[in-house]
Amino acid sequence: MQNGKIVQLNSVTKVYQQGQVEVRAVDGLSLEIGKGEFTALSGPSGSGKTTILNLIGALDVPSGGSVLLEDRDLSTLSRSELSRLRRDRIGFVFQAYNLVPVLTAYENAEFVQALQNVPQRERREQVMAILKQVGLDGLENRRPDEMSGGQQQRVAIARAIVTRPAIVLADEPTANIDSATAHSLLDLMQQLNAEQGVTFLFSTHDQRVMDRARRLIRLRDGMLEADEVRT
Predict the structure, then answer these.
(1) Does this model's pTM top 0.70?
(2) Coil, helix or strand for 33?
(3) Parallel, antiparallel, or unpaired: how do β-strands 215-220 and 223-229 relate?
(4) Number of domains in the chain
(5) Fewer CB within 10 Å: N-end or C-end of the chain?
(6) What pairing do the DSSP bridges indicate for beta strands 200-204 and 167-171?
(7) Domain coverage including residue 160
(8) How many other C-beta atoms can be found within 10 angstroms of the C-beta atom of residue 205?
(9) pLDDT digits (tens, 9 = 90+) for 190-214
(10) Count of C-beta atoms within a 10 Å radius of residue 118
């Protein structure tokens, strides 16, 4: 990777058609995210935060410009290559947790590794270690409906980081949890960032997340309004 860049957006535009109206969710945005960053995208609703995460996560395709992940132009990859990229190099943490309701915390956390055909013994060692790290030691056999919102989000974080992805994309991860739980989850993610170098990119309305970010990118109408790096 050039200069440790994980993500590079080059004049990216995303246009949606809503009836007769053309909506430019992202408008000519150029942006780079480097290895080890703890960065938040902020801005009002409709500013393009989630769209940008979806483009970086290969869940959507740009109308114009290019998105590169680890120097690979996503538009040049086949569907199977994009699927492998999402599985192996990107961790996702969603506002609604997106856990499989019939699976236990352990099974949800190991799901991606099972798709990767990681040997069962290795999988178990890694998943149990991650669950302990995120504060779920002893809760591995509980299903999502037996856990609090904060515990479910911890499972989602475990699932996102157990494969050691290049970047974790977190879309409003504190939106559905109380303040104390949000702070403890942010402590956890900051610890993972500081101690293991896990790269996090958030989209958020939450001032608590913005206050913790070491880089705050403000968006408005799909364009860059400000880019503040904190020391």
Answers:
(1) yes
(2) strand
(3) antiparallel
(4) 1
(5) C
(6) parallel
(7) 2-229
(8) 15
(9) 998 998 899 999 999 999 999 999 9
(10) 17
